[in-house]
């Protein structure tokens, strides 16, 4: 990071969902991790805290780290002060700057099937798939692809290159690193069917790009790995097939079914 020129006045962020239905779902889910990430109405809150701490440590933001030392119960009490109506779902965006000042943006969001919060199974498959494109350019990994911050111009550019102009569109674009490996989605973590069919017994059927490919350590990614839904493995952009099924996930929408659309942009520019 020492040789990297950082933009001015950026903040570290984490977006998540508040939903009172999570208290019911959390009791039904078999947690494989400690602490259980589904014990509060804030989706995967312990993972969001961990991600923010890791980002603050990366940027050497001591005051931000001091704020983030509070435990999950304390953080819940802090976030509760921003919720206008605790009977409705909300989309939260936590922003933290280098001085340790924490802002929380809260916006209405639509209700959804609570099973979408859990890793996909045959019993909670959605019927509508998002269109999933592959970026036509390559992105160099950096601290801003590893950690989620307000410095997101390269994500916006990738979305526009794929013709995605709104966050309400059921569409996503996958970023590709200079080695031609899938890094992540612009707003999601992707999962693909395992390519290696040899010695696959006992291995998860799904894979997600390793952090070494340059993508973000997403909260739902951490949850999917902890639950055994997927394993890490590199995947070349050129290995993806038009029309193939995939999964996407993020901290606001949970798990979303996707379908690869090559549309002539599967070969990144040199």
The CATH topology of the largest domain comes to D-amino Acid Aminotransferase, Chain A, domain 2
Number of H/I helices: 7
Query: Would you tell me the overall average pLDDT?
Result: 90
Distance from N terminus to C terminus (CA atoms, Å) equals 25 Å
User: Would you count the extended β strands for me?
Assistant: 11
What proportion of the residues form beta strands (DSSP E)?
15-25%
Give the count of structural domains. Answer: 2
Helix content: 10-25%
Question: Mind telling me which CATH architecture of the largest domain this is?
Answer: Alpha-Beta Barrel
The major sheet is characterized as: 8 strands, mixed
Low-confidence runs (pLDDT<50, min 5 residues)? 265-270
Structural class: alpha/beta
* CATH class placement of the largest domain: Alpha Beta
Order of helices and strands: EHHHHEEEHHEEEEHEEE
What's the name of the CATH homologous superfamily of the largest domain? D-amino Acid Aminotransferase, subunit A, domain 2
Strand order of the largest sheet: 6-5-4-11-10-7-8-9
Shape: globular
Specify Rg, calculated over alpha carbons.
18 Å
Pfam family, one: Aminotran_4
Keywords: Lyase
Organism: Aspergillus vadensis (strain CBS 113365 / IMI 142717 / IBT 24658)
Protein name: Aminodeoxychorismate lyase
């Amino acid at each position: 990071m020492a040789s990297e020129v950082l933009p001015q006045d950026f903040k570290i962020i984490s977006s998540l969902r508040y939903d009172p239905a999570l208290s019911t779902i959390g009791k039904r889910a078999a947690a494989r991790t400690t602490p259980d990430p589904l014990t509060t109405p804030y989706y995967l809150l312990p993972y969001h805290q961990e991600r923010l701490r890791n980002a603050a440590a990366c940027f050497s933001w001591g005051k931000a780290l001091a704020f983030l030392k509070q435990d999950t119960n304390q953080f819940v009490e802090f976030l509760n002060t921003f919720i206008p109506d605790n009977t409705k779902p909300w989309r939260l965006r936590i922003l933290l700057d280098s001085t340790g000042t924490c802002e929380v943006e809260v916006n209405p969001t639509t209700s959804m099937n609570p099973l979408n919060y859990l890793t996909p199974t045959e019993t909670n498959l959605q019927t509508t798939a998002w269109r999933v494109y592959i970026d036509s350019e390559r992105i160099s990994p950096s601290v801003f692809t590893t950690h989620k911050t307000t410095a997101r111009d390269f994500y916006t550019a990738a979305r526009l290159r794929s013709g995605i102009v709104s966050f309400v569109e059921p569409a996503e674009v996958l970023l590709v690193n200079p080695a031609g490996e899938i890094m992540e989605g612009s707003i999601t973590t992707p999962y693909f069917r395992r390519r290696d069919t040899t010695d696959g017994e006992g291995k998860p059927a799904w894979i997600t790009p390793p952090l070494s490919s340059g993508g973000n350590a997403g909260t739902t990614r951490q949850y999917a790995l902890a639950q055994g839904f997927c394993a890490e493995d590199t995947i070349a952009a050129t290995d993806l097939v038009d029309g193939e099924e995939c999964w996407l996930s993020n901290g606001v929408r949970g798990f979303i079914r996707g379908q690869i659309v090559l549309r002539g942009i599967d070969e990144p520019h040199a």
